[in-house]
Specification:
The protein has 466 residues and is of the alpha/beta class. It starts with 5 loop residues before the first helix and ends with a helix. It has three domains: 161 residues, P-loop containing nucleotide triphosphate hydrolases (Rossmann fold); 170 residues, Arc Repressor Mutant, subunit A; 102 residues, Trna Endonuclease, Chain: A, domain 1 (3-Layer(aba) Sandwich). The relative contact order is 0.08. It is globular, with a radius of gyration of 25 Å. The chain is 48% helix and 16% strand. The chain contains 21 helices and twelve strands.
Length: 466
């Protein structure tokens, strides 16, 4: 089942409809759905699809030759081209007479084995771009390789692409399309434990309870996901052991550089290098308080819910899991799920605010939103605001998110208003988001003020799913 990706498909179809030479770079993390997107896009179109393999140049050339020969349906052609240049030139010449898509998937595998491939493509693009009607798609899962060797200024192919698409995991709304049989709360929990990566979402069986899914996916050593984070790291980095220690430290609560360094037993310079690589892989997010571009208060968090859940609960319970004690481990996880879901709910609320903005229904025309934390000079303590966003020097929005089974009371709204007083905006708008609902006191105060939105989770879900 193919769902979502409407914007990406619209972009690809617009490029296809131009009729002229187009060169698209499509990249993103493993399992995010790049191949599915390509196959859906080229379905019914004149296309050559070729996936590289992690082998030598000869095998990839043989495979590519077969793809070209099958497309031409010609028995007169040689069974294998003598070089990639010869094979690619054949396709370029074919595209002078008609629209052809050439999609090369897992490009880094081929390019690493064939050092001259990028320069060959550069040569052929420069020669044929004015006469060719080809739509060339280069796709890759190695984020660092695609950014350094395809998109970067010094790369041979720099300046040749006509578009690039960085494919991201599904947002909450698209993820819910996989979870039709779940209740609203179960949909949030499923998103919290699996995130928006399609390949991971497909592991969820929404005819089973969340408990049964957690046991089957995370607490069973034979499941497809059980070793996924470690295996992915092994494909991307040279020292997965230290990377694992750093991610585990973050998952267990260490967020500042000093805390991470202490927990893994390495100096901050070493940790800084490894964290930079994890940020480039989109596995870790570096955050500064909203509105501060460079700050010593920077913190690190895990950027993918599946990785966050796995590193939070699997390593520390590995011995019990190996002994088949799934029930015991799940009991420990269940006790911590409400706290774990707090950050997930914040992300869902951010997506709600973005959708309000994009539909022209937001009271504040913000350009970005994020968390803020810092010192309250009056109370002489550290405070945090879950979400804030600025329209200009005079107008901003502030929000608080509560994933609890209790209704949000007036004190939550009053605390949010008080903390917003740390900022000098004249026009302030507030949102209070709740899993369960609101007390009468909170709703009455919101109505009196007139600049407060109080939104329960099910309302968020309904709006996001529209």
């Amino acid at each position: 089942m193919f769902i979502g990706r409407e914007r990406e498909l619209a972009s690809l179809n617009k490029l296809y409809d131009s009729g002229k030479f187009e060169f698209v770079v499509l990249y993103g993390r493993r399992r995010v759905g790049k191949t599915a997107l390509i196959n859906h896009f080229i379905d019914g179109k004149d296309a050559i699809y070729f996936m590289g393999v992690e082998s030598n140049e000869r095998q990839n050339l043989d495979n590519f030759s077969k793809s070209v020969i099958e497309y031409t349906n010609s028995i007169e052609m040689e069974t294998t081209f003598s070089s990639f240049q010869s094979a690619l030139e054949t396709v370029f010449r074919l595209s002078e007479g008609k629209r052809i898509i050439l999609a090369i998937d897992e490009y880094p595998y081929i390019a690493r084995a064939s050092k001259s491939l990028a320069s060959t493509l550069q040569l052929l693009i420069d020669r044929f771009k004015d006469s060719s009607r080809m739509m060339l798609i280069l796709c890759g899962s190695s984020m660092s390789y695609m950014e350094d060797h395809v998109l970067a200024y010094k790369a041979p192919l720099y300046g040749r692409r006509t578009a690039q698409i960085k494919l991201l995991p599904f947002d909450f709304g698209d993820a819910c399309r996989y979870l039709k049989h779940y209740s609203p709360e179960e949909k949030a929990l499923a998103y919290g434990i699996m995130g928006g990566t399609p390949q991971y979402l497909m592991q969820i069986d929404d005819r089973l309870s969340i408990e049964e899914n957690i046991k089957g996916i995370y607490l069973d050593p034979v499941s497809a996901i059980f070793e996924e984070p470690i295996n992915l790291l092994k494909q991307e980095v040279r020292e997965p052991g230290l990377y694992t220690a750093i991610i585990t430290a973050i998952a267990s609560g260490a967020s500042r550089m000093s805390e991470i360094s202490t927990k893994v037993g390495e100096n901050t310079n070493v940790c800084a290098t490894y964290l930079k690589n994890l940020v480039e892989l989109d596995l870790i997010q570096k955050e500064t308080p909203y509105g501060e571009k460079a700050s010593k208060k920077s913190i690190y968090s895990i950027n993918d819910n599946m990785f966050r859940f796995w590193y939070r609960f699997v390593p520390e319970n590995a011995s019990l899991i190996a002994r088949g004690a799934a029930d015991l481990v799940y009991g420990r996880i269940a006790a911590q799920l409400p706290n774990y879901m707090g950050k997930v709910f914040e992300e869902i609320c951010k997506q709600y605010l973005w959708k309000l903005l994009l539909k022209g229904e937001s009271p504040v025309d913000f350009a970005s939103i994020g968390r803020w934390w810092g010192s309250d000079p009056v109370r002489k303590c550290q405070v945090e605001i879950d979400i804030m966003g600025e329209q200009d020097n005079d107008t901003a929005v502030f929000a608080e998110c509560k994933w609890t089974n209790e209704k949000v009371d007036l004190n939550v709204l009053e605390t949010l208003i008080e903390r917003s007083g740390l900022f000098a905006y004249k026009d302030k708008h507030y949102f209070v988001f709740s899993k369960t609902g609101f007390t009468k006191g909170c709703m009455d105060k919101a109505a009196t003020l007139g600049n407060v939105g109080h939104v329960a989770y099910e309302e968020i879900l309904d709006y996001i799913m529209k």
